[in-house]
Amino acid sequence: MNLIVFVGNAVPPKPVLNPQPVMSTPDTHPRLEIRNLRRAFAGREVVSDVSLKVTRGQVTCLLGPSGCGKSTTLRIIAGVEMQNSGEIYVDGNLVCDTVHRVPPEGRSIGLMFQDFALFPHLSVADNIAFGLKGSKSNKRARVLDLLEKIDLTRAIDQFPHELSGGEQQRVALARALAPRPSIMLMDEPFSGLDERLKDEIRDSTLDVLKAEGTAVLLVTHEPDEAMRMADEIALMRDGRIVQQGAPYNIYNAPVDKAAAAFFSDINVIRGKVKNAMVDTAFGAFLCPGRPDGTEVEIVIRPQHLRIDFDRGGRGPAPTPQDGTPARGIVERARFMGRESIVEFRMDFDGSVLHATVPSVFLPKAGTPLWLMLRRERCFVFPA
Ligand SMILES: Nc1ncnc2c1ncn2[C@@H]1O[C@H](COP(=O)(O)OP(=O)(O)OP(=O)(O)O)[C@@H](O)[C@H]1O
Ligand SMILES: [Mg+2]
């Protein structure tokens, strides 16, 4: 048993305020609100009690693994799929429950899916103007305004086949935004694009969406995309939203091990509670309120391990931030470009831990090194 006990373990860093505050609106209703949506296919529930609000000017990402029910949720909101129960409100007005059903075209919802097929026989201008009503001059003004926003004014008279994939994507975005929908629903809208183009197009799409002030619900299975785009992430698993919050808070205070693992590789240190503490190679962790004998898992991301050198069989001095150091033997080290990943076999119990270092650090296999856990970055979950 290590002697040092630190009281500060498993307290997540302070949440930061949303860096892009939601724009104030004259009415207090969220643009989109869904309550208790359920949908089953052949007796299997794929959307279970999903509730969500999206405010004007805000991007919410519905994030989750393949098959968890994201697209089904979006299709129900769009009105192309029907829920078994639950309600959908747009700007505070009920558009669909099991009795009333406003058709898709009456819901003030813009859609952009993965296969955002433009009309091949229409010019860029006519594609964007397609869903617009009103006078010719008003339509023209809106088309010119959007072309400027997507930075494609020069392509006004071109046809889709004359544009690159990224340019077509921007035109599809402009087409969906043209009628000023209250809400934009986007289902993996970047997945068809060249990997190297994606980040640039994500950023420019975000600029346009913010400039338009639309509320956006974007579906993705890529955590990086959600972190990059979202004001708020709704993490979905097996038809349910398991956690919702700003990207920073979801990343730094996950509800469970699976939520932590969805965003990065994780290390898991197992132990059993005794006297409200768990003894590990890194000292004791407090587990208040958990009865003796409870199996717990301490989760830490590889970038939150610190590596230090061996000083003739001794490690660095313990600190309140990093707890007690523990020795491990390097099994292998790999250079990944932006960072190096070092794999350790721990002396304490033979378990394997991974640490990432943001530089070239390639110790030889067999080298003894010391590891420390950044205590405030550890999460303790019941096993
Ligand atoms: N019309 C349907 N009939 C029967 N099963 C369906 C239907 N639509 C969806 N499903 C099932 O519902 C589950 C959820 O599908 P959904 O398309 O919503 O997943 P997803 O989260 O969007 O996944 P992905 O990331 O792969 O697109 C899947 O198991 C799918 O097979
Ligand atoms: Mg899908």
From TrEMBL:
<dbReference type="GO" id="GO:0015408">
    <property type="term" value="F:ABC-type ferric iron transporter activity"/>
</dbReference>
<dbReference type="GO" id="GO:0016887">
    <property type="term" value="F:ATP hydrolysis activity"/>
</dbReference>
<dbReference type="InterPro" id="IPR008995">
    <property type="entry name" value="Mo/tungstate-bd_C_term_dom"/>
</dbReference>
<protein>
    <submittedName>
        <fullName>Ferric iron ABC transporter, ATP-binding protein</fullName>
    </submittedName>
</protein>
<dbReference type="InterPro" id="IPR027417">
    <property type="entry name" value="P-loop_NTPase"/>
</dbReference>
<keyword id="KW-0547">Nucleotide-binding</keyword>
<dbReference type="InterPro" id="IPR015853">
    <property type="entry name" value="ABC_transpr_FbpC"/>
</dbReference>
<dbReference type="InterPro" id="IPR050093">
    <property type="entry name" value="ABC_SmlMolc_Importer"/>
</dbReference>
<dbReference type="Pfam" id="PF00005">
    <property type="entry name" value="ABC_tran"/>
</dbReference>
<dbReference type="InterPro" id="IPR003439">
    <property type="entry name" value="ABC_transporter-like_ATP-bd"/>
</dbReference>
<dbReference type="GO" id="GO:0043190">
    <property type="term" value="C:ATP-binding cassette (ABC) transporter complex"/>
</dbReference>
<keyword id="KW-1278">Translocase</keyword>
<keyword id="KW-0813">Transport</keyword>
<dbReference type="GO" id="GO:0015697">
    <property type="term" value="P:quaternary ammonium group transport"/>
</dbReference>
<keyword id="KW-0067">ATP-binding</keyword>
<dbReference type="GO" id="GO:0005524">
    <property type="term" value="F:ATP binding"/>
</dbReference>
<keyword id="KW-1003">Cell membrane</keyword>
<feature type="domain" description="ABC transporter">
    <location>
        <begin position="32"/>
        <end position="263"/>
    </location>
</feature>
<keyword id="KW-0997">Cell inner membrane</keyword>
<dbReference type="Pfam" id="PF08402">
    <property type="entry name" value="TOBE_2"/>
</dbReference>
<keyword id="KW-0406">Ion transport</keyword>
<dbReference type="InterPro" id="IPR017871">
    <property type="entry name" value="ABC_transporter-like_CS"/>
</dbReference>
<keyword id="KW-0472">Membrane</keyword>
<dbReference type="InterPro" id="IPR013611">
    <property type="entry name" value="Transp-assoc_OB_typ2"/>
</dbReference>
<keyword id="KW-0408">Iron</keyword>
<dbReference type="InterPro" id="IPR003593">
    <property type="entry name" value="AAA+_ATPase"/>
</dbReference>
<keyword id="KW-0410">Iron transport</keyword>
